[in-house]
Amino acid sequence: MMAESMRSTYGLFIGGKEVMSGASRTVFEPATGEPLAQVYFGGRDEIDKAVEAANAALKGPWGRMAPGRRARALFKLAQLLAERQDELAVIEARNAGKALWSAKAEIAQAVEDFEYYAGAVTKLCGETIPQGGGMLAYTLREPIGVCAQIVPWNYPLMMAAWKLAPALAAGCAVVLKPASATPITALLLGEICRDAGIPDGVVNVVPAPGGEIGDYLVEHPGIRKVTFTGETETGRRVMERASRLLKRVTLELGGKSPNIVFQDADLDAAVAGSVYAIYYNAGQSCEARSRLIIHESVYDEFLGRFEEKAKTLRVGDPLDPKTQIGALISREHEARVDGYVRQGVQDGAKLLLGGGRPEGVQEKGAFYLPTLLGDVRAESRVAQEEIFGPVVTATRFSTEAEAVAIANGVDYGLAGTIWTRDVGQAHRVARAVESGLIGVNTPLTGAPGLPFGGYKQSGFGREMAMETLHLYTEQKTVLVHTAEKPVNPFGV
Predict the structure, then answer these.
(1) How far apart are CA 298 and CA 304, in angstroms?
(2) Angle (deg, nearest 10), helices 156-169 and 67-83
(3) Exposed (0-12), middle (13-18) or buried (19+): which is 5, by Cβ within 10 Å?
(4) Among 75, 124, 258, 382, which residue has the least CB neighbours within 10 Å?
C-alpha cells in the first residue's frame, strides 16, 4: 500500500492553487471521534473567486481545446487517480468512516467514470436534419457553462467523479462543493485534475457550509447549471433557489428502495445479495434496499437465513482489512438511526437483529450493528422514511400485485431489486415498480454507462451515462439558406 499522505491542513482549491482563505474548521474522524485535519471553508468571497476563475477558464484554453486533447486530459486524470488509489482509499476511509475495501472499490469506479467519459468526449455530436427548399439544418452541442456541483458525505470522491467527469467531457468548468464532513478527497481530486493538465480554473473545489453559503452558490449569476446529490428536503431548496434564474438542475435525492423476494427465488442468492444491498457502506446509501418485501410462504425461512448471515458481518475499524462495515458519519447520525429503530419497535415491529452499538469499538466512534426489523407495517414510519443506516424492515406479501403496491407505496423511487426465477414475472414487476433502477437477481445497481437516477421524490436527471452529457450542454439549431434564390416571404 502506498503511504498515506494525510496533511494537517487543507486549503481551498481555486484557480489551480491551494488557497488558505475563509475560515479554518476541524474535520473529525468518524471511527474515533478525534480531529483528523484542519480544512479551510469558503464564504461568499471565496465562492465569487471560484466562479470568476471558472468563467475565465471557459474563455481561455479550455474553451478552445479540441475534443481529442480534452479526452487525453481525462485519460491522464484517470491514470493519476488509479496510481493513488491506495493512498486515497486510506484517506477516504478515515474521513468518511467507511471500510477500506469499500473505499478502494469506490475509487476504482471513479477511475472508470473518467475513462468512460474520456472515451465519450469525441462522441458528443450534433445532428443533420433534412430540410427542403434549399435549407440546411444542423444542431450543435455546446458546453452549458460553469456548473455548481454539490456532493454528499457518503461517497465523497466517487460522487465527485460522477459529476466532474461528464461536465469536463462536455467542456464545462466547475465549482465543486464537497460535504462539510468529508471534504479532503475532493480537494485532492482538484489537485489531481491540475496535475493531469486540465487548465487552472476549470475545476475549483470549495468546501463551504450549507445554508446561506450553499444558497449563495446555487443562486450565483455566474453559474448556469446546478447538480446536487443529497437528501430530498435540501434538494427542494436547491431547486427553488436555482429556479430564480431558470438554471438547469439535476437532483439525485433520497430513497426507500424495495427488495422483493418471490416464493420461487433462489434463497441462497437472495439472502446473500439482500444482506449486501442494505449493509454496504453501513446502509448510508441513497439506493440501499432498505425494505424487504417477502412472499409469505418463504418469509420465515428467508429471515432466518438473513439473520444468520448478517450476524457474521464484522463491524469496526475501517482500516482493518477484515472489517466489512465501518463507522457511521457521526455520533449524531448514530443517535438518529437508533431513534428510528426505537420508533419502529414502539410502532409494533419486532427487533430480530442488532439495534445498538457493537462491542469493542472506539467509545467516541459512531457505529451501529446490522439491524433487522420484522413484521413491519408498510405504512409505518420506518418503512416510509429514509433511515440512512444499517437498518432493514421486513414486510409480508401474498400476491404479485400486493408486492408492487407495497414497493410503490412510498414517496421515493430510486432503486429496487427483484428475486425470482420466473422470467415473465421479473419483467412484469420491473416495469411496474416506480424506480429509476431495477436489479433482477442481483444487488448491484450502478456502473459507468448505466443511467443512475430516480422517480418521484428521488429526483430527476441521470448520471453516469451518455445521456448525462446532454445535461451539461445546450443544443443549438443552425439553419442555413443554400439556394440561389433569396428567401423573400413578403415579396418585397
Answers:
(1) 10
(2) 160
(3) exposed
(4) 75
Residue entry with cell 457505529: 367
Whose CA is closest to 179, among 145, 229, 216, 121?
229
Does the pTM of the predicted model rise above 0.85? Answer: yes
Which three-class secondary structure state does DSSP give residue 61? helix
391-406 pLDDT, tens digit each: 999 999 999 999 999 9
Per-residue pLDDT tens over the stretch 156-184: 999 999 999 999 999 999 999 999 999 99
Ramachandran bin of 272, using left for φ above 0, alpha for ψ from -120 to 50, beta for the remaining angles? alpha
Residues 37 and 186 in one domain: yes
Active-site annotation holds for 240: no
Query: How far lies 396's CA from each of 15, 120, 349, 440, in Å?
Result: 55, 45, 12, 19
Task: Give the domain extent around 332.
Answer: 258-440
The radius of gyration of the chain from alpha carbons, rounded to an integer in Å, stands at 24
**How many CB atoms are closer than 10 A to CB 481?**
13
**Cell 426507500 found at:** 256
Q: Decide if 252 is catalytic.
A: yes
Across-strand partners of 478? 138
Same domain, 234 and 296: no
Q: Let me know: does 436 contact 462? Beta carbons within 8 Å.
A: yes
Find the catalytic residue in 106, 172, 286, 287: 286
Helix residue ranges, H only, 297-390: 299-311, 331-346, 381-384
Identity of the residue numbered 41: F
All cell numbers assigned to 103: 473505499
Question: What is the tally of structural domains in the chain?
Answer: 2
Cβ neighbours of 278 (radius 10 Å): 28
Cβ pair 271, 302 in contact under 8 A: yes
- Kind of pairing, strands 146-150 and 225-229? parallel
Which grid cell sits at 280? 454496504
Distances, alpha carbon 391 to alpha carbons 36, 353, 356, 381, 457, in Å: 28, 9, 11, 13, 21
The CATH number given to whatever domain includes residue 326 is 3.40.309.10
Beta strands 350-353 and 371-374, pairing class: antiparallel
Within a domain: residue 451? no
